[in-house]
Design goal:
Rossmann fold, disordered N terminus
Length: 304
């Protein structure tokens, strides 16, 4: 079990930008930028988009696919994408009902429906070999897809994942979360609960905005159904290398939950890495540690 110290951020200052209907500019971050990189939104439909940092050419055969947390968006992986560039491209779709993803029927927000949409996205992007990086809710979706043993899947990295078993949450907390939908004060309260490390004001605002622009159907579907689904019986079909990352200050999903609910169901030898001082939002709070562990994971896969 690894233990990482809090890190100091060094993010890119400038990102080469391009105009056009399929591109959107994002604010510059601080630090040197990777060569020949552009952060863009590629539209997949009238209201559907995914966020990705593309660095060409990318010498690696592995593409990371980031799956965000409940009430988040693909923007959560922006800093991690910068830190993986230019060696590894990262695609981060807005999952059904969140971010700018197209709205769908209320009964289409099941874990399997999200896995179906993810599989279609991967096929559409013509990704040949990839690692799923599932954060929180995205972790359960990643495991659902991995159990299907799709062509091209090389590994699964889980960041503070929702377990394959029903998520440990009291009925009272579940209903309080349902009632919190669309309320700015509740979004701020959630931010304070799910983070442990200080974040820049712009990131704070982004996290709150993503919470407030979630669709009602997707919000309720995860709380009342998706988080309660039990897909543990499928985990014996997950046959690729896996790893779990967790923050030791996570007030939502403590490392012990992962050790009890998720780790025993994954392939033998799956590591549980602990990031010191981090809360639940690992891609925001600990992008350096996450990127470093993803690089190590990719190297392990490439040399296997």
């Amino acid at each position: 079990m690894g233990r990482w110290p809090p890190a100091t951020r060094a993010w890119p200052t400038t990102i080469p930008r391009r105009s056009g209907p399929r591109w959107k500019n994002w604010p510059a971050l601080a630090g040197p930028s990777p060569p020949s990189c552009v952060l863009r939104i590629c539209e997949a439909g009238p209201k559907s988009a995914h966020y990705a940092l593309f660095c060409m050419p990318a010498p690696s055969a592995i593409t990371f696919i980031g799956l965000h947390y409940w009430a988040g968006s693909g923007r959560a992986f922006e800093a991690v994408a910068h830190l993986l560039a230019p060696d590894y491209p990262l695609l981060s779709p807005d999952l059904l009902g969140f971010g700018d993803a197209a709205l769908t029927e209320a009964n289409s927000y099941t874990v399997d429906a999200c896995a179906d949409a993810l599989a279609a996205f991967i096929t559409g992007q013509k990704v040949r070999r990839y690692v799923l990086v599932g954060h929180s809710m995205g972790g359960k979706i990643a495991l659902a897809l991995a159990a299907r043993q799709p062509t091209g899947l090389a590994g699964v990295a889980l960041l503070s994942p929702s377990p394959p078993t029903p998520e440990p949450m009291t009925d009272e907390d579940r209903m309080l979360s349902v009632k919190a939908y669309g309320k700015p004060a509740e979004a701020e309260k959630t931010f304070r609960t799910i983070t442990a490390r200080p974040l820049a004001p712009k990131l704070h605002q982004q996290i709150v905005q993503d919470n407030l622009r979630s669709s009602r159907a997707a919000w309720d579907a995860w709380l009342l159904h998706g988080s309660r689904e039990n897909i543990s019986g499928r985990m014996c079909d997950v046959q690729v290398p896996c790893m779990i990352l967790a923050g030791d200050q996570d007030a939502i999903m403590s490392p012990s939950v992962h050790g009890l609910e998720t780790l025993p169901l994954l392939p033998e030898g799956t590591p549980l890495e602990i990031i010191s001082g981090a809360g639940h939002l690992l891609p925001y709070e600990a992008p350096e540690e996450v990127a470093a562990l993803l690089r190590r994971f990719a190297a392990r896969i490439e040399t296997a």
